[in-house]
Each structure stands twice: as structure tokens, then as C-alpha cells.
Amino acid sequence: MRFPLKNIILRVLSSLTTFAALERFTMISSSLYAQYVSLDPVTREPHRTTPMSRVLPWLIMSVLVALSDINFAYRLISTLAVTEHLTWMVNVDEMCFMLESMEKIRGASDDFGGGTSTLDLIGILLHAQLVFLVTFPFATCATPILHPSVDPTAPWLEDATFLPHPVKILLRMCLIFLLTWHMCTPIFGFGIKISNVCVILRNSLKSMMDHSQSEISQNFKFFTHRKPFYECLLTYRQLQIVTIVMNVALTWVIPVGILILFICALGTSYLVVKMSEILSVPLTFLAVTIFTTIVTMAHFVLPLMAGLLSGSEEFLRWWKLKGGSKHRKKQVASCALLKFNVGGLGCVDGDTRRIFMAQLLYNTVTLVITL
């Protein structure tokens, strides 16, 4: 082999798929304590973790995240984390149904890129998120040692005069690590799970169209053949049910998530542009990392979510152009578009990324000029 290192790198990058990121996230998130919903290691089916004693650490950390108050940025991120925690607790059956259905659809799809040799940019991005998930708590918990002057947890344990000062710092570091870990886990996990859902739905639509078009090329009488049509119709109905359940379960998560991520990106961009000379190098690097992560996710994931709407439009348009009997036309006309709803404000479409980036740029420039 002339370029063994290049082949090894390509082989490693090819293994970084969206589904592999979900599997690795499941292992990493359950490394400290059991999550509220866990995946069966054999069947990969999601289920509520039992008995309740196993979920007790997760519940305690959720309460601590909701009650603790460190600074404004912490309150923003904790609001999003608490929203996702409540969503999992209130809509646990719907969330398990969505993940289980996605696993079945992924297994039935012929075009899921899990074992292909092509690079999966979304999968590489999600694996980068796993790196941030592991390193971010360590970076934040080092604040009491590296930057005690800007440590927002300095008042903690002040009344515990019986503890030595190094012990207080160690306890604060442990609390910061656990709180940050418990906040980052649902946020990064939501991005990974939503990306997997988008890829599976997109590939399912694409595989149905590829299958139908190949049947047409092999048999011109396919226009009057009913079996492929009803197979595709049944699969589309299943996708439609899954998206309805998903939108009901994520009524608050998607709008709250987009709003909070927008505010975090706005704040970190201001810190990088305006206050980089005042902040220390680690804090500046942390702000750059958060801003880059949010912008990268918005650049890749928002079009992926919008692709569900455009893909379903293309699929239904293709079947409508084929014509057929009145019953077939009525069945196609009764199919609704697949989309991600942003609460009751609309849905994620092709203009969502453009609006998000434009508003972020406009408000960042306005903030830098006025303050």
C-alpha cells in the first residue's frame, strides 16, 4: 500500500456514522449513572429504566440542575436541559415509541449509510460533539483552580468552616463537573438523536423512490401494478405517524432549544469579538468552542430537518404525477407532509437556516456596536 496512513484515516472516518454516534453516546451517557431511558444492548429497543432505584441519581441531578443558580449562561443552558428532562419524563412512552420506530425503519431501509465507504459529514460532526461532551465538564470544573477570581461558585461552602480550603475546592469541582455533565448530556444527546431521526426518515423516503424508479425501469407496466404503491403508501403512513408523535412530544423542546442556542451563540460571539483581550485564554477558547459548535450544528442539522419537508413534498409530487385510479389519487391526496414543527410557530423549512444565520449576524453586529 502506497499510502497506509491515508487509508487508515479514511477507514476511521468512514466508521464515524450517525448511528455509530448514537451508540457511542448511549455508552458514554450511561457511564456515570443510568439514564431515565436506556437502550437494550441486544435488541437496541428503548425502554424506561427499572427499577426506580437505578434512576435515583438521575432524578437527584435533575433537581440540582433545576435549583442551582451559578450565572446567566448557566441558567440559559439549565433551562434547556430541564425542558428536555421534563419532556423525557412526561412523554417517555412517546419518546420510546419514536426511537423504537426509527430503529425498525432503519433496519428496513435499504439505503442507510451505516456500512458505506463514503464519508458521513453529519456522523463526523456528531462524533465531534461526543468529544465536546467529554471535555466540556472537565474544562468547566477546572475554573476554581485556574481562574478563582472569576469562579461563580466561590460562595459555595463558605459556611463550612470545618473543611479545609483544598477540600472545599475539590468538592466545588466535583459539583461543577456533575452539574455540567448532567446539563450537557440531554443537550448533545438531543442533537444526536434528532440527526439520526432526520437521516433515517430521509433515507427511507429516498429508498422508496429508488425502489419504485427501478421497478419502473424494469417493468413498464408498473404504472398499473398495485403492490409497490401500497407498500410505499404503508411505509409513508408509518413515517407520518412517527412524525406526529415526535412533534407532540417535542412541542417545547425545539422552540426553546433554538431560542436558547441563539442567545448562547450571540453571547459567545460578543465575548470573542469584544472581550477577548480581557478574558483569559481558556475562557476565550471555551467561548469559541461553544460558538463554533452552535453555528456548525445550525449549518448542518437545520437543513437536515428541513430536508424532511422537501423530501416528502418531492415524494408526494412524484406519486401525483404518476396518476392512476381515483382511489389511488385520493390516497395520495390524503397524505400529509412530514415536517418538524417549531411548537405552534410553524415548521423548519428551507429558509430556517438562512433566517437563523442572518439574525445571528445582525444582532451580533448590533450588540458589538451598542455596548
SS content category:
mainly alpha
What is the rounded distance between the termini? 58 Å
The outline comes out as globular
Largest sheet report:
2 strands, antiparallel
Low-confidence blocks of residues: 110-117, 216-225
Whole-angstrom Rg: 24 Å
- By DSSP, the count of extended strands is 2
- Order of strands, main sheet, comes to 1-2
Q: Calculate the mean pLDDT score and round it.
A: 80
Q: How many structural domains are formed by the residues?
A: 1
Percent of residues in beta strands: under 5%
Helix count from the secondary structure assignment: 13
- Topology order in helix (H) and strand (E) letters: HHEEHHHHHHHHHHH
Keywords: Membrane, Transmembrane, Transmembrane helix
Protein name: Odorant receptor
Folded structure, characterized:
The protein has helices spanning 4-14, 18-29, 52-67, 72-90, 92-108, 121-141, 143-146, 165-218, 227-249, 253-274, 281-322, 326-333, 352-370, and strands at 37-39, 46-48. The protein is 72% helix and 2% strand. Helix 10 (253-274) packs across helix 11 (281-322). The protein is built from 13 helices and 2 strands; from the N terminus they run H-H-E-E-H-H-H-H-H-H-H-H-H-H-H. The relative contact order is 0.10. By secondary structure, it is mainly α. Strand 1 (37-39) and strand 2 (46-48) form a beta hairpin. Mean pLDDT is 80; it is low at 110-117 and 216-225. The protein is globular, with a radius of gyration of 24 Å. A two-stranded antiparallel sheet has the order 1-2. It has one domain (4-370).
